[in-house]
């Protein structure tokens, strides 16, 4: 019984952080106008990403919106703990070639913000991930 | 410009150029390493120092001539090569900057690669297509590090 209680407690504590799935956060972001993202960068990214991206470059902002690079979405996978999570979205790019986004999120003031983005461009769909991949572990 | 804007074709060209730079540094050892069945790694650090390593040993060279063409500041590049089938080699390359990275996964034909170069590797390529019972084949085995 103690074991069950402990498991329940652990499950509750990991689920208590945020009810948002990473995919829903990603979908909201993808549907947010670029100008809104640019004006609220700190709400979406942690410092590593916003120091790596030139937010004054329209081409980079366009690519950051995800939807411009991935034209067709196929699958998504995610894994989270209390302060970190990884989301993988697979699909096809504008040339109908397989690609994936691997995104690490970190918690910031009760919200998920993007900590790391990996764009995977593949020749064949077999090379796309079939589970959530954290960008810092994509070697 | 940041890493996120690199196109797949550009990334592939950098991978091929890095292998070429390794060839131009040490043709024989590069050929031996690239002929291995997996476990091959090519890395470049933020200063452009490149290293190709496998069971046969390692080669260090400057990767700058290949990376400078991208015009992007990189933290590192790592490429792993594994055997697909026949002369096909699978690769997974990741170009990293702080917070953002771009990966390219694909495969290339080792025979086509080595026939596009000169010197020892071209000799090896010609030997690859020779009769399996010929003396050429024995030479090939020597060249490729039996």
Fill in the keyword field for this structure.
heterodimer, A: alpha+beta, Nuclear Transport Factor 2, Chain: A, four-stranded antiparallel beta sheet, 6 helices, B: 146 residues, alpha+beta, six-stranded antiparallel beta sheet, 37% helix
SSE layout:
The complex is a heterodimer of chains A (about 140) and B (about 150).
Chain A: H1 2-15, H2 22-30, H3 34-39, H4 41-44, H5 47-52, H6 58-64, E1 70-80, E2 84-93, E3 98-108, E4 111-122
Chain B: H1 8-25, H2 27-34, E1 40-44, E2 49-54, E3 57-62, H3 64-67, E4 76-83, E5 88-97, E6 100-109, H4 110-115, H5 120-128, H6 135-143
Antiparallel strand pairs in B: 1-2, 1-4, 2-3, 4-5, 5-6
Helix pairs in contact in B: 1-2, 5-6
Report on this model:
The complex is a heterodimer of chains A (139) and B (146). By secondary structure, chain A is of the alpha+beta class. Chain A has one domain: Nuclear Transport Factor 2, Chain: A (Roll), CATH 3.10.450. Helix content of chain A is 33%, strand content 32%. Chain A contains six helices and four strands, in the order H-H-H-H-H-H-E-E-E-E. Chain A is globular, with a radius of gyration of 16 Å. With 146 residues, chain B is α+β, with helices and mostly antiparallel strands. Chain B has one domain (3-141). Helices cover 37% and strands 31% of the residues of chain B. Chain B is built from six helices and six strands, in the order ααβββαβββααα. Chain B has a six-stranded antiparallel beta sheet with strand order 3-2-1-4-5-6. In chain B, a hairpin with a 2-residue loop joins strand 2 and strand 3. Residues 118-122 and 125-129 of chain B have low confidence and may be disordered. The interface between A and B is medium-sized, with 29 and 22 residues.
């Amino acid at each position: 019984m103690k074991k069950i209680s402990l498991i329940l407690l652990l499950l509750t504590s990991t689920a208590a952080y945020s009810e948002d799935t990473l995919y829903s956060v990603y979908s909201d972001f993808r549907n947010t106008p670029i100008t809104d993202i640019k004006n609220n960068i700190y709400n979406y990214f942690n410092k590593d990403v916003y120091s790596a991206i030139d937010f004054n470059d329209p081409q980079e902002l366009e690519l950051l919106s995800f939807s411009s690079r991935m034209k067709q979405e196929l699958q998504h996978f995610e894994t989270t703990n209390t302060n970190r999570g990884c989301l993988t979205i697979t699909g096809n790019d504008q040339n109908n070639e397989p690609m994936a986004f691997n995104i690490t999120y970190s918690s910031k003031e009760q919200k998920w913000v993007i900590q790391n983005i990996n764009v995977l461009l593949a020749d064949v769909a077999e090379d796309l991930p079939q589970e959530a991949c954290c960008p810092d572990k994509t070697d | 410009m940041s890493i996120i804007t690199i196109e797949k074709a550009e990334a592939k060209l950098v991978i091929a150029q890095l292998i070429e730079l390794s060839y131009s540094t040490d043709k024989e050892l590069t050929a031996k390493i690239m002929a291995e069945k997996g476990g091959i790694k090519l890395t470049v650090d933020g200063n452009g120092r490149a290293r190709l390593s496998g069971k046969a040993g390692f080669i260090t060279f400057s990767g700058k001539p290949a990376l400078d063409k991208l015009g992007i500041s990189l933290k590192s590049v790592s490429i792993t090569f594994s055997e697909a089938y026949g002369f096909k080699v699978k690769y997974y390359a990741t170009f990293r900057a702080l917070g953002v990275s771009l990966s390219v996964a694909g495969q290339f034909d080792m025979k086509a690669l080595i026939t596009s170069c000169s010197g020892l590797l071209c000799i090896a390529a010609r030997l690859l297509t020779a009769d399996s019972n010929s003396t050429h084949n024995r030479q090939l085995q020597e060249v490729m590090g039996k």
